[in-house]
Specification:
Pathway: Siderophore biosynthesis. Keywords: Ligase, Membrane, Transmembrane, Transmembrane helix. GO terms for molecular function: isochorismate synthase activity; ligase activity, forming carbon-sulfur bonds; oxo-acid-lyase activity. InterPro entries: ADC_synthase, AMP-bd_C, AMP-bd_C_sf, AMP-binding_CS, AMP-dep_synth/lig_dom, Anth_synth_I-like, ATP-dep_AMP-bd_enzyme, Chorismate_C. The chain is α+β, with helices and mostly antiparallel strands. Among the domains are: about 420-515, ANL, C-terminal domain (GMP Synthetase, Chain A, domain 3); about 535-620 and about 630-680, no CATH class. It contains 27 helices and 48 strands. Helix 4 (about 100-110) crosses helix 5. The longest helix has 19 residues, at about 700-715.
């Protein structure tokens, strides 16, 4: 039974705008907020909020207006929220991850007069988003926490919003104080109107239950716009008790756990997926977490096994939290028995919360039976904001909120959440619990996670569709999964009718799994016409893959092919069954005549590839350096040629030691391809032609050194931190591309190599690094190389040069900023707690050059794909500079001609979501009769023209010493 009650106070609570002055008088100089190195006392926060409120009033914000907040965790978020409360303006709390479609819908509903954004956060620039929203709302004022940039005149810096404090009329306790975003999955957004009175009770009663006091330190790692983080008890509950709130912009373990140790955090809230990652991180993250007293976990069901693991994580008391932004909150109590904490989601916060559990006819079920939870109480809403049709569905005639949650209640009044009401499947007249199937699937080897949805079916009524995330590289087989489920005792009616594989779940705007989208995916997969398949044939071969690949390239009956070496496989794609190209405007053109326009061509590419009518395909492609101009808003210099090309080949040959795999969409082509491979596998003496020399000239040297000096001067003036400038060297047109590729590859040790021909354009190269690698599981890596010395081929001299490299301050600084940028870029599309650096400052040997190398790794965040990674990481920092936009502009100004393929990439993309893009450096190019090499040097403020000229010479030597004419 209930051990402690927290009654609703009989006296009216203060309006939320009056809370901070009360707290400031009570707690004064005690630290209220910690944000990185910033610390703000209660008195300092109150002063800041007073002046900000006055400044907002000067801008025209008035009581009853709405203002959209899309700010990350930070002092800016808390200050703006409290300043709006002070004025009686209603904050509309949007999620930092929402983009134009969701924000536009929220603006139509809430009609805000102001929109608060960061300049950038997690690699995303919010200013173009805000500009697009403001373009259709001339009266909307955009206030930027950071640099407003070159936005419209309606953009203002938050730091510039200031005024003399005054007294503002206080709203009544029953007026709307804040609009929270509902966690539902319907397409139309729902806003939750919380009043001053009910929200004050929400966070003060939660704070009392969670034993918060002036010595408490709450770490906010989940978005502060979530009700859980903001008021359960969260940020406001902590401040109300005189405690300290530590604001973290990331939930990454390697950031947040040291914060716990540094600030002696006592209270922390997580959601189950994040809690699981944190638990796993304790295998390597050793920060002192002994200060933790309470670890809250809520937002979705917490598996008992994970609950048990978390209960021993740091000595903190585990507290399960079940509730909704609409109102009702349930907590396990801090003095509950362990069994209650592990297996239930607790009891209601208030003695005045009214709960009933009903069946489909709305009749209350017997004690211990499962049914839909309905609730009414002092802090639960009675309607949504401007949504009468939704209200009719969500509220009963007597004012109970239909939660849609399936729960049962134990003998002590604790709720056990069984799932969602719509998480039942009506299959052939039988009701089947989704949670049962999901838990059984998750217990199978090879399955990392599983989501089951009900899909409309003309025969069954609803069929069972299971989406599974594989735990390894192997894609689980549907038949084998159902056999394993049967072996575990699942009845025939509970076996999935359809099994699909996904590597990332689609999410709703508030970060919950979007089951409606999964249903749509299941229906689309069922309606899709049969996909064309490649016919395949394997042949045993004796030749080394490199030698055989070169022989085949010289004999291929086509002028359109790409050879790509990746991890011991030489893969050749020939002719195009279909192709995609991106033009200088960013439009994605499909060879079937369709096109996709938009501000993000990479998103258009991903959409186009999702519609490929083949199965198990591999695309071959290349992107010019100028493709990066699209992402950074720089006018793309173009001669009419596409900036990016991808083709799905008609036929393929893949070569590994001892084996050739031949593939073709035309089965009749296999015998001819097999004959070609077998003929190429016969050892023949292939003498090289005459060696070709490359001549340098003093005029080119002087011109390049002048460019270096100019760029170094700009960096020393603070314009940017790093840039790579390059120069081209002409080569006699008698060059033979295939034999020179073979000779160069024998002498080089690249990360990747390639040889391609597209009509009159040809290129080959030995890539020292990849731009980005994404595997089928969504694991991402990039390997920035920065810092260079020659390899002389003599052990003592090479060791001396390596020592010089490792001790050169300029080279180390250049490398460090490159790794830092890669980490920052990857945080935009990876789970932040998965990011890490390995192989830090290793010395990597690439042919006649040695480099400093590090590898940055991460896991794609839910909802992200390989093209998100490509968009952020291209062009490679090794070939552009820091910051990238300024470096791109510098390159455009200092280099006379567009780079084209040089420092762009050659890539392969697979149908399972994998992408491998090789940086095009150490390469040779032919376009018609013109042949040339190109090399660059990384410049930082410490660079000298002499050293950078030498670096380009060292890099050119990797390919220049292996150029040959055709054999006679």
């Amino acid at each position: 039974m209930e051990k402690t009650r927290y009654p609703v106070p009989d006296t009216p609570p203060p309006p939320l705008g009056e809370c901070l002055p009360l707290w400031a008088r009570r707690y004064g100089d005690h630290t209220a907020l910690v944000d990185g190195e910033q610390r703000l006392s209660f008195a300092g926060l109150d002063h800041r909020v007073e002046r900000l409120a006055a400044g907002l009033h000067r801008l025209g914000l008035r009581r009853g207006d709405r203002a959209m907040l899309q700010l990350p965790n930070g002092i800016g978020f808390v200050s703006v929220c409290l300043a709006l409360f002070r004025l009686g303006v209603i904050p509309v709390l949007a999620m930092p991850t929402q983009r134009s479609r969701e924000i536009e819908a929220l603006c139509r509903l809430a009609e805000p007069t102001a929109y608060f954004i960061p300049a950038t956060a997690h690699g995303f620039d919010y200013r173009p988003l805000a500009a697009s929203i403001a373009a259709t709302r001339p009266a909307l004022q955009v206030i930027v926490d950071g640099d407003p940039g070159q936005g419209p005149s309606s953009f203002r810096a938050l730091d510039d919003v200031d005024g003399e404090p005054a007294r503002w009329p206080a709203p009544a306790p029953g007026e709307v104080a804040v609009l929270l975003l509902s966690g539902g999955t319907t397409g139309t957004p729902k806003l939750i109107p919380r009043t001053h009175a009910d929200y004050f009770y929400n966070f003060t009663a939660s704070a009392a239950l969670c034993a918060l006091g002036s010595d408490s330190v709450y770490l906010a790692v989940l978005p502060a716009a979530h009700n859980f983080t903001l008021a359960c008890p969260g940020v406001f509950g902590t401040l109300a008790c005189g405690g300290t709130v530590v604001l973290s912009a990331t939930a990454s373990c390697d950031v947040a756990m040291p914060l716990i140790a540094r600030e002696r955090v006592t209270h922390l809230a997580l959601v189950p997926p994040l809690a699981q990652l944190w638990a796993q991180a304790r295998e390597w993250e050793t920060s002192d977490l002994s200060s933790l007293r309470v670890l809250q976990v809520g937002g979705s069901r917490l598996a008992p096994a994970l609950a048990r693991q978390l209960s021993g994580l740091s000595g903190a008391c585990l507290q399960q939290v079940f509730g909704m932004a609409e109102g009702l909150l349930c907590f396990t109590r801090l003095d509950d028995p362990l069994n209650t904490i592990l297996h239930t989601q607790g009891r209601p916060l208030s003695s005045r919360d009214r709960l009933r559990i009903v069946d489909e006819q709305g009749r209350e079920v017997n004690e211990g039976m499962a049914g839909e939870l309905q609730t009414r109480g002092p802090y639960t809403i009675r309607h949504y904001y401007r949504a009468p049709e939704q209200d009719a569905l969500s509220f009963t005639a007597d004012g109970f909120y239909r939660t849609g949650d399936l729960v049962r209640r134990d003998g002590d009044g604790n709720l056990i959440v069984e799932g969602r009401l719509k998480e039942q499947i009506q299959r052939s007249g039988e009701k089947i619990a989704i949670a049962d199937i999901e838990s059984q699937l998750c217990a199978l080897p090879g399955v990392q996670a599983a989501i089951v949805v009900a899909v409309p079916d003309p025969l069954l009524g609803e069929r069972i569709c299971a989406f599974v995330q594989p735990a390894g590289e192997r894609i689980p087989d549907g038949l084998a999964l159902n056999q394993a489920l049967s072996a575990r005792g699942l009845g025939r009616l509970m076996l999935p009718d359809q099994i699909e594989t996904l590597h990332a779940w689609p999410l709703t705007p508030v970060g919950k799994i979007d089951r409606r989208r999964l249903v749509a995916l299941a229906m689309a997969a069922d309606r899709a016409p049969p996909l064309r398949r490649y016919a395949e044939q394997q042949i045993r071969v004796n030749s080394a893959p490199l030698e055989l690949a070169a022989r085949l390239a010289g004999k291929l009956p086509t002028r359109h092919y790409t050879l790509y070496e990746c991890r011991g496989e030489w893969s050749i794609g020939m002719d195009a069954a279909l192709s995609l190209v991106v033009d200088a405007r960013g439009t994605v053109h499909h060879s079937n005549g369709t096109s996709r326009e938009g501000s993000r061509p990479c998103a258009g590419i991903a959409e186009a590839l999702a519609d490929i009518p083949f199965t198990d395909w591999r695309a071959y492609g290349r992107a010019t350096f100028e493709f990066a101009h699209l992402a950074y808003g720089i006018h793309a210099t173009s001669d009419g040629e596409p900036l990016l090309r991808l083709s799905i080949p008609q036929s393929e040959i893949r070569l590994r030691d001892g084996l050739a795999l031949i593939r073709s969409l035309d089965p009749a082509a296999l015998p001819g391809l097999a004959a070609l491979v077998m003929a190429g596998d016969i050892p023949t003496r292939s003498p090289l032609g005459k060696a070709i020399g490359v001549l340098e000239n003093r005029e080119a040297e002087a011109r390049f050194k002048q460019q270096v000096s100019a760029a170094v001067g700009e960096m020393q003036a603070g314009d940017y931190q790093k840039v790579i400038l390059s120069r081209a060297v002409e080569v006699p047109s008698s060059l033979d591309m295939v034999s020179s590729y073979l000779a160069g590859r024998r002498a080089n040790t690249p990360a990747r190599s390639f040889l391609l021909r597209d009509g009159d354009f040809q290129a080959y190269g030995f890539s020292p690094e990849t731009v980005v690698e994404v595997d089928a599981r969504g694991q991402v890596s990039t390997q920035p190389l920065a810092g260079t010395r020659a390899l002389a081929g003599e052990t003592g001299e090479d060791a001396r040069l390596q020592g010089e490299l490792l001790g050169d301050a300029k080279e180390i600084a250049e490398h460090a900023v490159s790794v830092k940028l890669a980490m920052s870029e990857m945080s935009a599309f990876c789970d932040t707690d998965s990011l890490g650096v390995s192989e830090f400052m290793d010395v990597c040997r690439r042919g006649s050059v040695q480099h400093l190398a590090s590898r940055v790794r991460g896991q794609l965040a839910t909802g992200c794909h390989a093209w998100d990674a490509f968009e952020k990481l291209f062009p490679a920092v090794t070939a552009s500079g820091i910051p990238k936009r300024e470096a791109l502009d510098s390159i455009r100004r200092h280099e006379a001609q567009p780079r084209g393929l040089y420092s762009g990439c050659v890539m392969i993309v697979d149908s399972d979501g994998a992408l491998d893009a090789a940086l095009v450096l150490r390469s040779v190019y032919r376009d018609g009769n013109r042949c040339w090499l190109q090399a660059g040097a990384g410049l930082v403020p410490l660079s000298t023209p002499e050293r950078e000229w030498t670096e380009t010479c060292e890099k050119l030597a990797c390919v220049a010493q292996h150029l040959h004419t055709a054999a006679v």
